[in-house]
């Protein structure tokens, strides 16, 4: 009987130890979370955020300078309320406006961007190739959300169809920068109005 009582006592002590250990571990975890509550939330937030696509395109330095000048003109048209609008934002709005303005059916050219425009590899020299000796810059034009990236693909596909798909071997993102700059040059006021309308929605 004495042995049985001893065994029961030992079991109770063992169970008590387990309960105490799990309680201590739980409390330690709670303290850790209280000390650093942002970890899980930050991970959740980063998982919820759409992954941005960084769009870098090599262009002549003169193109970057012109884009900066046109960006300044847009800001001037918009007024002091929009003075902090970045070049990145202006480029995204510019692409969105181009998509709305260029009315070309691209339903038969869904793979044009992926197959030719974004394809890696050596390009043929064309009248749009940056001349040798001219200073160039690998410029970061925008950080697109996946949705904005789809709009960018559509715009470049429309431009490709407009120029002529028979020239598809020449196509690249760089190839279409003169078209984007020309549209910007001719639509500074329209872009400013478009940005105002979008911001006031």
Share in helix: 55-70%
Question: Helix-strand pattern, N to C?
Answer: HHEHHHEHHH
Mean pLDDT: 83
User: What percent of residues are in strands?
Assistant: 5-15%
**Overall spatial form:** globular
Going across the biggest sheet, name each strand in turn: 1-2
Instruction: Give a quick account of the main beta sheet: strands, pairing sense, barrel closure.
Output: 2 strands, antiparallel
Helix count, per DSSP? 8
The count of DSSP E runs of length 2 or more, i.e. the number of strands, is 2
**What structural class do the secondary elements suggest?**
mainly alpha
Give the topology, please.
Layout: H1 2-35, H2 38-48, E1 53-60, H3 61-78, H4 87-101, H5 112-117, E2 136-144, H6 146-163, H7 177-186, H8 188-199
Antiparallel strand pairs: 1-2
Q: Explain this structure to me?
A:
The protein has a two-stranded antiparallel sheet. It has 201 residues and is mostly helical. Helix 4 packs across helix 6. The mean pLDDT is 83. The chain starts with a helix and ends with a helix. It has helices at residues 2-35, 38-48, 61-78, 87-101, 112-117, 146-163, 177-186, 188-199; strands spanning 53-60, 136-144. The longest helix has 34 residues, at 2-35. It has eight helices and two strands.
């Amino acid at each position: 009987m004495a042995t049985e009582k001893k065994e029961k006592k030992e079991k109770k002590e063992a169970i008590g130890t387990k309960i105490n250990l799990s309680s201590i571990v739980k409390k330690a975890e709670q303290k850790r979370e209280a000390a650093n509550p942002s970890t899980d939330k930050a991970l959740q937030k980063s998982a919820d955020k759409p992954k941005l696509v960084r769009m870098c395109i090599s262009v002549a330095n003169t193109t970057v300078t012109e884009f900066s000048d046109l960006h300044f003109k847009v800001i001037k048209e918009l007024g002091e309320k929009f003075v902090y609008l970045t070049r990145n934002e202006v480029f995204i709005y510019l692409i969105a406006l181009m998509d709305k303005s260029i009315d070309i059916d691209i339903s038969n050219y869904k793979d044009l961007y992926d197959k030719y425009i974004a394809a890696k590899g050596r390009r043929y020299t064309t009248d749009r190739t940056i001349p040798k000796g001219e200073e160039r810059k690998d410029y970061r034009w925008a950080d697109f959300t996946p949705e904005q990236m789809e709009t960018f693909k559509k715009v470049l596909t429309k431009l490709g169809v407009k120029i002529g798909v028979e020239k598809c071997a020449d196509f690249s993102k760089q190839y279409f920068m003169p078209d984007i700059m020309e549209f910007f040059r001719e639509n500074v006021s329209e872009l400013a109005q478009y940005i105002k309308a979008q911001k006031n929605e």
